[in-house]
Write a structure and sequence with these properties.
337 residues; alpha/beta; Alpha-Beta Plaits; TIM Barrel; eight-stranded parallel β-barrel; four-stranded antiparallel β-sheet; 14 strands; binds phosphoenolpyruvate; binds manganese (II) ion
């Protein structure tokens, strides 16, 4: 950690800062320039976390050198993590596509959708049973019945399933049914929920919060990892910006930045980013080009009558066409789809 001191301060003030650092158990390296003094604190920076160095008299700024996230960082683990979900390897050379409706609505529509996305090459089925809706008057999902229908679709197609967990009290129930637990954008910083899924030991797909920085995103992943579960897939799903033409702004640069920072696989959800089905294909192809390990795409057999997010859902035929187009992009960047 580097501590820059203010101009023209007394030796007594400098000594006070040095004393604080030393009592925390770190060594000190003092560099006295013409104008100001800089202190290098050498050792475990986390020991200084509670010392509020910024607030000490004479301190101008404090710059940590270590990353605040550890277990999920590339510094901690150089090789990219590969997560095995019922034989589907996530984070390997093969790209994986998660597809399905925004929410589970009925047995027939779900199984039909599952069959069609499977035929097109998707390897994991999505479907919300507990929906995080902005309005309490909108369709909230089928709850446990929705999970049961997902289990039936899995039985019919063999596709592993993913669904969103919103309440820590449903963790056990969710674990009974799903292969991947989804933590939605709105709960990215629900720290108790994160710790709960950390303990559950199931693969987790963590979505980026609507206004979360990448550092905050990684700290949320660290919460899960801190409980002993490092099977985490990060999913960029668009962030809130001043732009209103799209539902959210897809932050494509998140992929290469996160690839540098973490060993965890990175997915892109072009559906919630765009909010409109006709933007899903270009964004999905771009996601592969920038190095995403996979995609989550909303597909509905009858988008016009969908109970949730119909406007951004692809019909199965369009999804199949997109899969073919994505294969070409994947090949161009040395991945398989
Ligand atoms: C979803 O994938 O169903 C969903 C609600 O997404 P997000 O949390 O990204 O809004
Ligand atoms: Mn949705």
């Amino acid at each position: 950690m580097i501590i820059v001191l203010k101009k023209d301060i007394t030796q007594e003030t400098i000594d006070h800062v040095v004393e604080k650092i030393k009592t925390a158990g770190l060594a000190v390296h003092i560099s006295k320039g013409k104008e100001r003094t800089i202190i290098g604190a050498i050792g475990d920076e986390s020991l200084l976390a509670s010392k509020a160095l910024e607030a000490l008299p004479g301190v101008e700024s404090v710059m940590p050198i270590m990353k605040p996230y550890k277990l999920v960082s590339r510094e901690f683990q150089k090789e990219s993590s590969v997560i095995d979900v019922g034989g589907v390897k996530i984070g390997d050379t093969d790209l994986q596509v998660i597809a399905g409706p925004c929410s589970v609505e009925s047995r027939d529509s779900l199984v039909e959708c599952a069959r069609q996305v499977k035929a097109a090459g998707a390897r994991i089925l999505r479907g919300g049973a507990f929906k995080p809706r902005t309005s309490p008057y909108d369709f909230q999902g089928l709850g446990t019945d929705g999970l049961k229908l997902l289990a039936e679709a899995k039985k019919e197609t063999g596709l592993p399933i993913i669904s969103e967990l919103m309440d820590p009290r449903d963790t056990e129930l969710m674990c009974e049914y799903v292969d991947i637990i989804q933590i939605g954008a709105r709960n990215m910083q629900n720290f108790r929920l994160l710790m709960e899924v950390g303990k559950a030991g199931k693969p987790v797909l963590l979505k980026r919060g609507l206004s979360a920085t990448l550092k905050e995103f990684l700290m949320s992943a660290e919460y899960i990892a801190s409980q002993g579960n490092s099977q985490i897939i990060l999913c960029e799903r668009g962030i809130r910006t001043f732009e209103t033409a799209t539902r959210n702004t897809l932050d494509l640069s998140a992929v290469p930045v996160l690839k540098e920072e973490t060993h965890l696989p990175i997915f892109i959800d072009p559906s919630h980013s765009a909010g409109r089905w006709n933007l899903v294909a270009p964004l999905a192809k771009a996601a592969i080009a920038v190095g995403a390990d996979g995609l989550m795409i909303e597909v509905h057999t009858d988008p016009e009558n969908a109970l949730c997010d119909g406007a951004q859902s692809l019909k199965p035929t369009k999804f199949a066409r997109l899969m073919d187009e994505m294969k070409k992009v994947a090949t161009a960047v040395g991945r398989n789809l």
